[in-house]
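Usage example:
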Amino acid sequence: MGNAVKGADLLVRSAVASGVEVCFSNPGTTELPLVAALDSVPGMRAYLGLFEGVCTGAADGYGRMLGKPAMTLLHLGPGLANGISNLHNARRAGTPVFNVIGEHVTWHRPADPPLAMDIESMAAAVSGWRRTSTSAESLGRDAAEAVAASLKGQIATLIVPQDHQWSECEDDGISPMPEYPMQTREFPLEDAVRVLRSGKKTALIIGGRGLQREGLVQAARIRAVAGCDLLAECFPAHMERGAGLPDLQRIPYFPEMAITMLAAYQCVILAGAQKPVAFFGYKGMESPLLRDDQRCIYLGDGRDMQKGLKDLADALGAPASPDRSILARLKRPGLPEGPLSGAIICTLLAALQPEGAIIVDESITSGAHYYPQSGGAPQFSLLTLTGGSLGLGPSCAVGAAVACPDRPVINLEADGSCMYTVQALWTQAREGLNVTTLICANRSYNILKVELARAGVSYKGGNTANLLDLSGIDWVSIGQGLGVPSTRVRTAQELAVELQKALAEDGPHLIEMFL
Amino acid sequence: MGNAVKGADLLVRSAVASGVEVCFSNPGTTELPLVAALDSVPGMRAYLGLFEGVCTGAADGYGRMLGKPAMTLLHLGPGLANGISNLHNARRAGTPVFNVIGEHVTWHRPADPPLAMDIESMAAAVSGWRRTSTSAESLGRDAAEAVAASLKGQIATLIVPQDHQWSECEDDGISPMPEYPMQTREFPLEDAVRVLRSGKKTALIIGGRGLQREGLVQAARIRAVAGCDLLAECFPAHMERGAGLPDLQRIPYFPEMAITMLAAYQCVILAGAQKPVAFFGYKGMESPLLRDDQRCIYLGDGRDMQKGLKDLADALGAPASPDRSILARLKRPGLPEGPLSGAIICTLLAALQPEGAIIVDESITSGAHYYPQSGGAPQFSLLTLTGGSLGLGPSCAVGAAVACPDRPVINLEADGSCMYTVQALWTQAREGLNVTTLICANRSYNILKVELARAGVSYKGGNTANLLDLSGIDWVSIGQGLGVPSTRVRTAQELAVELQKALAEDGPHLIEMFL
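Running the assembly step on the lines above writes:
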């Protein structure tokens, strides 16, 4: 016979036993037994976000860096709703997230109290795995299964009525985590091998974990024997780059440019990437970026792609060493001077970013030049806006910094995007995280100006101008108000000084780059 | 034969013809044709929110004040998700909202591009009426039907693929709005009349529009003839109060207090209010706040209650004039002095608030004393947190100020709550809205401390303390960073000076009340 234990304790204990170490939370009354369990059960550290999008974005950043889930703890339907936007980015990134949402006490829910919502339907929009608990006893197993499910590269959402959290049941030990099936998967390699040996012009489009070191090295082995081109998907979740690693071309955002890049290939092998499609639909343009006559071979999911690329390289009889001709050499741009522009910011960052940096890029139009400039920097990680849902950067940076406390995190961030989850700066300050936020302050939703121009729409003042204009934000005051030392720069020289200062000091910093 | 017209123009023209005058928006690429239509079609003014929760909260505040819908314009699934939390509050308030969400081009959606989500399922969680458009031609009728549906006191969500917005079709004139059935509804009054004439101790629990002047006056007529007590629902959407109006007791938040208040009544008539239930479920406590032996009579919906109460008064043969004994007399508390506390803030606000003020109360624990203190103030409107979803106040204040530019708006706001939609301050500044934000800065999620104490949970530091603590926010810097003149006060005397100054000056102000 076991001792009595609360359901909340079972859940947390099982999550800890399954390897979950942190919880990004914004709890309410219906989550308080789980909050208490975060203290009564050792092994998990809780981080407060002052808005739920901070919590889910942090869980995304954490999962992208470590390949294992953080737990979230969100308050009922509204808490989930506030977190959905960044859960969407995490879903597109294939990030494991253990998403826990409190629910009203089971006997209270039918009374339709003010906070009651249809949590399950909303959770379905982002969750690959989803369950509402049925008892306190089940919470250990529920948590273990959720964590295991998340490791398939998806959001696993567990909805837990408050009485299941506080009720006591018999303690039957820790629920074992169901076996994680990733490493056992086999890839159908025959088609890819045949194409790569055929002499046809072929591109390997790499995505997911295939863009981390091990996958890239295997891709360069494949190139050594097959001569194919190596491309990166448009929005990598976590790509490792820099001197010594293969320097991949990245599929551009705008469809015309992407179609041009891809046009010459007779075959494309999707190694952890989705079949490329336009980001938006445009008049007179189809969704796919490949023609029907361009053969497409799907190798496997992004989460499995380190093994998938190794298997393919081995099947091709590739040499152990990669094609060294595509490994980037250490080559930094010179330090630019003069008034700031998007291009100058990108050049300067590429010139100064330290080895091991984690670059969270949500710079939208201002950062267009960063990727081509940064290929020869010391090795670093690049995290991008996988789902297109604005407000990822500052919170993703929180999670990356918690996951990798010894690496500097630099968030190259648009002013419009930052405002969606500006509350993340407070968490950076409270936790003393080594995050430098570089705000590209162009004071407009510039991407919409670009899209209006593409559509041939002109406007003059009026509602349109009003809806695109972001002037009147003082980022230095906002950053300081949230506890982050902040400064404003207008020239490349000033930016160089302030960036180096921020990187030399512990804790978060914000630099408003006035464009 | 008509001329060619774009679907987006049809939608906006029809909305304008149906009485929609403002659009609270945060658009993206898939909404750009509708943005352009906001200029090509005259009659609607667009307001930018830097986060979608600002837009939906503003639409709620606007609708609560005017009883007619504002339009929102939100970007795909993430835009909707960010706005759901305040749509939930609007749903609980019975506020009409015309909620418009862009969707990918119809032929592009099946390609599952990065931003694609299941918008319909998420919209269902908050929408009483919901439709995805099927063509450009239908958009005029879609908008008219949506606006009509919203006037039933609900969220009407129209999802519009971008190609329907930009496509041209034949112009067949403005779609007429389906007739709004509110004024024709009949109320079954017999049971209520019988109970009120029976001599049984009866309470009239008033909600919805019954809490505005016309409803309150009718309720006081009923009291004059029947002697019943008049109670207000716990979280009024828009209640009119002050000298000359009936002074209603309000049902308390904590269930023990509410049960005590309601225990003596043999009968309860729900006049636009829901059957009272506890806000949360608690151990050993049932959800309903009324016993089974307390008879409950449902009079009708909150939106119809001005007519419902008049019909009931007439059926009772009530005199034209109300029971004057329950009309509040002008009676202000004296100006308090000393260090600030929640009670002192409430007293001071009641002492100084100007005639016609719109008080948006999201002060949670700090504002507990405001309601009893303010009954004798000059007449004002009180808007509260109907759905319990935090982050309503600053955005609801935006909408109320846009709706009623000649009335001062005072947002009594908790620091924790404000942080959820802090971006609303920017819209207040840009639009020069007469909103004074009073931040109750107690630097904690104090309601959770109260709930932990109620549950008998003690804690010492650790994760629990960490998750309840909000220290480190400088509201003066944040307010100024968003363009709102801001100041900090620590005593009642300082608050009195700054509040009067803020009310005397045009445009928004923020006062951090350091507790």
